[in-house]
Amino acid sequence: MDDLVADSGIAVWTEDGPVAVFYLPHRLPALFAISHTDPFSGSNVLARGITGDISGEPVVASPLYKQHFSLRTGRCLEDERVSVQVYPVLLDGDQIRLEVPVAQAASVAA
């Protein structure tokens, strides 16, 4: 928790790849986690975006092309066809717990 900065994000590496964790202390819940990768550029930059609120929706604006992504759903507000992965996140004491999907084992046909 000590690594978080109010109203901004940090990037963390997970088994699922880079994830952006945002701390918005004036909201409940106060923690959000989405993919760190901007789907429009392919760059890992979303944790460096500017957080805000659009019509009650907590968002982050990509620092590259300025699209807004919902921190709750991952949906791009400017293009509904585009979204980023959202991860369940919670505070456990002073540790942040992030739930990442279990990798699917490749099935081999016999």
Task: Output the keywords.
single chain; 110 residues; mainly beta; Rieske Iron-sulfur Protein; 3-stranded antiparallel beta sheet; 8 strands; 0% helix; globular; disordered C terminus
Number of domains: 1
How is the largest sheet built, in terms of strand order? 1-2-3
Mean pLDDT equals 91
Largest sheet entry: 3 strands, antiparallel
Structural class: mainly beta
Residue share in β-strands:
35-45%
Percentage of helical residues?
under 10%
Q: Give the topology string: H per helix, E per strand.
A: EEEEEEEE
Which parts are unreliable, with pLDDT below 50 for 5 consecutive residues or more?
A: 104-110
Please count the helical segments: 0
Radius of gyration: 15 Å
Q: Shape from CA axes?
A: globular
Cα-to-Cα separation, first versus last residue: 48 Å
CATH 4th-level superfamily: Rieske [2Fe-2S] iron-sulphur domain
CATH class: Mainly Beta
How is the CATH topology named? Answer: Rieske Iron-sulfur Protein
Number of strands: 8
Instruction: Tell me which CATH architecture applies here.
Output: 3-layer Sandwich
Organism: Marinobacter excellens LAMA 842
Protein name: Nitrite reductase [NAD(P)H] small subunit
EC number: 1.7.1.4
GO molecular function: 2 iron, 2 sulfur cluster binding; nitrite reductase [NAD(P)H] activity
Which helices and strands, and how do they pair?
Layout: E1 8-14, E2 17-23, E3 31-35, E4 50-54, E5 57-61, E6 68-70, E7 89-92, E8 95-98
Antiparallel strand pairs: 1-2, 2-3, 4-5, 5-6, 7-8
GO biological process, one term: nitrate assimilation
GO molecular function, one term: nitrite reductase [NAD(P)H] activity
Keywords: Nitrate assimilation, Oxidoreductase
